Amino acid sequence: MSSERVFIIAGKRSAVAPRSGVFASLTYYDLAAQVVIDILKEAKIDRLEVDELIVSNALGAGGNPARMVSLEAKLNLSVGGISIDRQCCGGLDAISIGTALIKSGRAEVVVAGGVESYSTRPVRLHPKNSDQPLVSYDRPAFAPAGFNDPDLAEATAKLAREFGISKEEQDDWSINSHLKALKSKEILSSEITPILNQTNDLFTRELNQKICERAPKLSDTITHANSAIAADAASFVVLVSELFLKNKMCKAVEILGSGTSGVIPEEAPLAPVGAIKALLDHTEISLSNVTFIELMEAYAAQAIICTRLCDLDLDKVNIRGGALSRGHPVGASGAILVVRLFNELIKTPGASGMATIAAAGGIGSAMMLKS
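RE: above sequence
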């Protein structure tokens, strides 16, 4: 039976750990399965009630990561799992796809989100041509020949220059992100599934201007201090139909809609601007009525540009800190934004929240929730 309305009834994540850190010995399915098990327990849903599992993963070895997670979490064997790769947007888009499955009537209960183990990502090799030996490469192409496919730090640095964003402004944004996360440490721990006894994000620290001044440069004004570090983490939500929710009678947050947009690959940091516009047009909600905004901070400059172009209220943006204070587990980052929103909204009846994120290749995604 199709469902016009879809709800999140549980949302959890692991702590975010820098690559080669405390989660270095764990596979992506180790991380993901523990979070999936925990949210089903919190939602009071038997593992056999789950109709589908959708998993975003960007750096793994391929195959079907969702099936690996499904088997490790001991879901029903009929849950084949759906794996997607939309790079940074993937975790949020997995939730959008899960919402569509329920609305279509194909499922009543879907677990959706993302996971990344940067620490255990495989070494990538490819031939330059058929006569050459294999050579290693750090990332795949995000655009075909004929498009400019720059390093993302370089692309962000170029946009920072065009928009007149100084290194000091970027550093201040990053310092503030860490400060907000430190002040919210206890609140943030309540949304984290303990894995290896970790209940807080491990990169969050007392960042200051002196540290920022010493930070190695990535490109022009972009440094290690004002960009998000590579990390390991998992993040998932439980999605249910309106009928299932009525039978369960539990607290829930409704998914009002989502939006996506594309720009030229070299301007990927600008992609959330179009996604936000598409989302607001679809939901017919004014930004002034949005209570919480979770904005991806892959780079401080990227976040600053989006707030300017969309005229976002800074008092509503990343109130508990953002990815600059956590880290960037690529396939999970979009889902972390949604889990953050869910955990704010569940405590704030009648409020609404928006999550938005950019990804390599020039794509952006956004989602609106309401309690």
